[in-house]
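[job 4471] stage=fold_predict status=RUNNING
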Amino acid sequence: MAYYTPTLNSGDVLPQAAVQTWLISVDAGNINAGVAITGVVMVFNTFICPAPGTDWTPQVEGVALAASKTAKKFWIPLSGLKIGDIITTYNIVGDVVEVAAATFDCKLVRVNKANPLTTTDITNGAITQVIADGNFDSQANCDDETVATDKAYVLECQGTTGVGDAIIVTHAEVTITRILKP
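[job 4471] inference complete, writing structure tokens
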């Protein structure tokens, strides 16, 4: 049977007849295999700052690193992922005020259940270092990483600022593929 794919515009609501026609066109084999929803972008703006007030500090725009700090880290936990999600890429968004020599790095890290716990840097999971003044929307096109049991994921961010520099990170946009099963 041929599949029925309704044409939609932003804001459209499918009429009941269109939904029924689509449901009839999907066979049981496809339903049992699940439906892959690709290009789902999730926004993460929760920050773990180990020394707020002295290093990265939460503020209304996100987290900020003041002037004259060296190799200071914070983490963004990717806590909305489900087992089976596939992380395909991410963007980290923010702004650099560079007067001297600011740098910003970010990488995708998997936390593994072990005794003791271990971490793994995901292949191709690092952005190109941000070194220029102005806002940034830096992307890492990491190797596809399937979320599994006993694994957690974080973006590990590190910044360095010179005299008069500042860095603000507002959020991360993580693109995933999600398999929906009945």
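[job 4471] summary: Helices lie at 16-25, 28-33.
[job 4471] exit 0
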